[in-house]
Amino acid sequence: MNTLSYKTVSANKATVNKEWVVVDAEGQTLGRMASKVAKLLRGKYKPNYTPHVDCGDNVIVINAEKINLTGKKWEEKQYIRHTGYPGGQRILNANEVFAKNPASLVEKSVKGMLPKNKLGADLFRNLKVFVGPEHNKEAQKPKTINLNDLK
Question: CA distances (Å), 59 to each of 48, 75, 88, 139, in order?
Fold first, then answer.
């Protein structure tokens, strides 16, 4: 007798299908691009998405130096850190962070959109950001994704 099964199928580390994808940051707005990349890292675009499992793809972001920020964010957006010493608070604006390392601007924005726990740290390791159109992950045979096609 053929009966219906109403069991929820939950993905785990063994059953998840991880792929490598390339995202071109040229002409993209930083926050909008970062939210879509964070969704790709979590696996929210996949039908077998499970919140507590790393079921997302490995994402390669190229052309990080060609990212856009809207309005006055280049001068007014602040990145605050603390050295650990008394009076050790340091503030950099987006221009200063971009001048030191354009890839870190993309990494910081994506990391802020991931969960703040062990899973978020594991997901962040699946992100590779490169300045320029070249990357060293050709052996993984990544496929290119157009972010404008994603919701």
Answer: 18, 29, 34, 14
